[in-house]
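Cross-check.
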Amino acid sequence: MVNVPFLDLRSTYLELQTEIDEAVQRVLNSGSYIGGAEVEAFENAFASFCGASHVVGVANGLDALKLALLALDVGPGDEVIVPSHTFIATWLAVSQCGATPVPVEPTADAFNIDPQQVAARITPKTKGIIPVHLYGEPAELDPLINIANRHGLFVLEDAAQAHGAVYRGRRIGSHGHAVAWSFYPGKNLGAFGDGGAVSTRDESLARRVRMLGNYGSRTKYVNDAIGFNSRLDPIQAAILRAKLPRIDEWNARRSAIAEQYTQAFGPLLATPPGPQERQGHAWHLYVIRHPDRDRLQQQLSDAGVTTLIHYPRPPHQQEAYASLGRGVGSLPMAEQYASTVLSLPIGPHLTPAQVDHVIEAVANSVASISQA
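Predicted model, tokenized:
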């Protein structure tokens, strides 16, 4: 039986083993293990890649969101609009600033936040909007930015899953006031450990993020704010810089697999958006929906296909947010997605045989369930 892992991280290393080994050795030989030339070189390279004027490396994606929010002066008493359907880190960053996340639902035929519902959730306490480019699909930024401009709000993009994604001809990276990135190993651009960054066109905002992530200090032993220790490690920066030139190629491989899946599953399943909406998609994840999701997942596992659920419980139903008092049915689209979504393998190192096996296994499993 063909076995298909959800994501083969080791293959990313093997494809670039010489470059990555040289990068790591270069850092070890440098004697500089905090910040320094390697981090600066990656920041500059990634800024160029995503069309931003400034990139600040931080320790992880959650810190990227939190530090950007703090740099945008979010604090206690503020509200920030967030998607109801997202990884909980988007909400946690708001909460860690002392502010309140205000969830807005996606539409019935898309995974990202619905701009038409955002305006109705704005109050005098609203400070900004965090659209998430979920699964690698860019959110509808133009209407969100227009809403933000009319109400004097910021737009902080959560691009943890959108490395290389394109919105209306421009790479994700500088449409809003700031963009938060994660370099968790499983991302399209992943480190071999934790890492994150904030990109922006605003120099003063970039300086404040850097200061907050360095103990609130711009000058050694002079602390201007109550800051944090959140810095991108130079070994991870060197690895990321070695990987960066391959991202477009790896994303193209993901896109080709996505097209094969969509053609095969279109008549069978609720698949991702149509061809027009798919333009610019980074395909971090390929997510299908099925009313008997758990059974489908088990049958695929029995067939050797590993799948994951992104995400099995929405943030408002987590114990961490019980204080918000949002019971079952309060955010029905997020709850529906949590019970029906299933992510299929779509890593850039899947072999043609593995892709064919996924397609066959899904078709057979769906047919078996429908006949039961």
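The chain is about 40% helix and 15% strand. The first helix runs from residue 9 to 15. Passed to J.P. for a second look.
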